[in-house]
Specification:
alpha+beta, 4-stranded antiparallel β-sheet, 9 helices
């Protein structure tokens, strides 16, 4: 399994701890508000908003909180958030992409640059590492929803580009252009996905030793803890032993 997927699982576990719940809910609400403001406030007509609401439901965010976040966008009195993508190299020369929603560009850039510097990495220009990733749609289902063969067949029929099935579930990838239609076709067959969003998928992953891996995981941890940071992607793999140590 690729490093970004392994780390996603770590953050998922950490995200369920009470101490991080309010911060996580704040980020989810911010994404819902921005998605609703940029498109229509109807999730059936706004793929990004629908994806944001699915993510919020997966974390047990209340229906009232979700509705408030949508109304904040249509009320005209919400903060104006700017979408910014930061790119750079972490320890070991690993490529890292950071997606942020911020109301203060200078603060966000300063903080994120300091995280990279303190970890022994460096923040680069926009486009400096994005070419190593594919910006693609991902749709995830639990493993119990369908057999590997049934999911593969349905995904091909829906027009997906790739399917990766494991004991952790099914990951279906589709281009940005076909993502919404593929997601709708799979939902009609298997019900609502546990995740449906655009992601940065590494074209190749780089194995790193445990010492470098620990520094990388700490860097990504610090980035994820920042209020402005929504998503972090990286192209590395670490050992199962380190995953167990960091995820414990």
């Amino acid at each position: 399994m690729a490093g970004h997927s392994q780390f996603k699982n770590i953050m998922h576990r950490k995200g369920r701890q009470d101490a991080q719940k309010s911060k996580l809910f704040g980020k989810l609400a911010r994404e819902i508000t921005v998605a609703a403001k940029m498109g229509q406030p109807d999730p059936a007509m706004n793929a990004r908003l629908r994806a944001a609401i699915i993510s919020a439901r997966q974390e047990n965010m209340s229906k009232d909180s979700i509705e408030r976040a949508v109304k904040k966008a249509t009320g005209g009195d919400g903060e104006n958030y700017e979408e910014i993508r930061y790119e750079g190299y972490g320890p070991g020369g690993v490529a890292v992409i950071v997606e942020a929603l911020t109301d203060n560009r200078n603060r966000a850039a300063s903080d994120i640059r300091s995280y990279f510097t303190k970890s022994g990495g460096n923040l680069g220009e926009t486009g400096s590492v994005a070419f190593m990733f594919d910006h693609t749609g991902i749709i995830e289902y639990d493993a119990k929803v369908a057999s590997d063969d049934a999911m593969l067949e349905a995904a091909i029929e829906a027009g997906a580009d790739d399917v990766i099935s494991s004991e952790n579930g099914h990951e279906i990838y589709a281009s940005q252009e076909t993502f919404r239609e593929v997601a709708k076709a799979l939902e009609a067959k298997f019900g609502e996905a546990r995740k449906a969003a655009l992601t940065w998928k590494p074209q190749n992953t780089v194995p790193v030793d445990d010492e470098t891996g620990e520094k990388l995981l700490k860097l990504i941890d610090h980035l994820n803890e920042h209020d402005d940071v929504q998503n972090v992607y990286a192209n590395f793999e670490v050992s199962d032993a380190l995953m167990a140590k960091m995820g414990g």
